[in-house]
Amino acid sequence: MQKSPKEAFIVNIHMDKSKVNSVKKALAILELFTVNEPQLSVSEISERMDMPRPTISRLVNTLVGEGYLKRIPASRNYSLGMKVFHLSTVITNTMTQTKIAAPLLRDLRDKLGETVYLDVLDGCERVCVLSFEGIHLLRTVVPLGQRSYLYAGADAKVMLAYQPEDKLNDLISSIGLKSLTQNTITDPEALQRELIKIRQNGYAISAAECTPGSVAVSCPLLDQNNQVTSSISVSFPEVRLTQKLVDRCIKELRSIAILISKQMGVSEKMIELTWGDAC
């Protein structure tokens, strides 16, 4: 018998609540693992969660299948999987980069007088995690936590340029290349050419691609895995745009990016491949 629209709506609500509860329970399981107790059995998890063993067993098997838990072959115990290690590495890298970058970017802000900031990669977006506002009366502002898609703006494109090609395809298929200003690149082939140019140069420049009247000059940052997961940028009003200022920003950002990358343990070969003669 077919359900009425009202009945179907109620069923969907219950299903959504069930999914949310399952996620909460799965996260609670992961939080049981500690430095002192890196391994737990289904029975131990069931007892501490005060939940039936069959339910815990299903959740644990799902977490194993997704890589967040792994079975210990010599016992019936489980430990945290490589997915958790990957996530912790991302956080650690970001914290380490931020700590290294903070005094260098603050000094650069003082030297240039313009807004200087650090972004990290988060899915199909860039997120600002460190920002030093310019000292001029007329200045651009990049607040902490600011997000934008990877296809627009030098700070975003300089990270997108070093990602696998399927990252760009995912971006286009999921959100499209929407026009944010009249300068936003909305043609996939044109964006691809732009990304190739960025990789060749080792930096990116944009003018009013996300915000009218704003210019950004950006360089990628390599992490200890030789991956580009963040970038550093200088942003300033378009009215102060000169080739001299752009050249100075490129020189200063490259120097800082290389220094940070070296302190992150990046190989000399990767640094040379990324910045070439600037090394």
TrEMBL record:
Function of the protein: May be an activator protein for the gylABX operon.
Pfam short name (any one): HTH_IclR
A GO MF term: DNA-binding transcription factor activity
GO biological process, one term: negative regulation of DNA-templated transcription
Protein name: Glycerol operon regulatory protein
Transmembrane region(s): none
Organism superkingdom: Bacteria
Keywords, alphabetical: DNA-binding, Transcription, Transcription regulation
All residue ranges annotated as the HTH iclR-type domain in the record: 20-82
Organism phylogeny: Bacteria, Bacillati, Bacillota, Clostridia, Eubacteriales
Occurrences of domain IclR-ED (ranges): 83-266
Keyword Magnesium: no
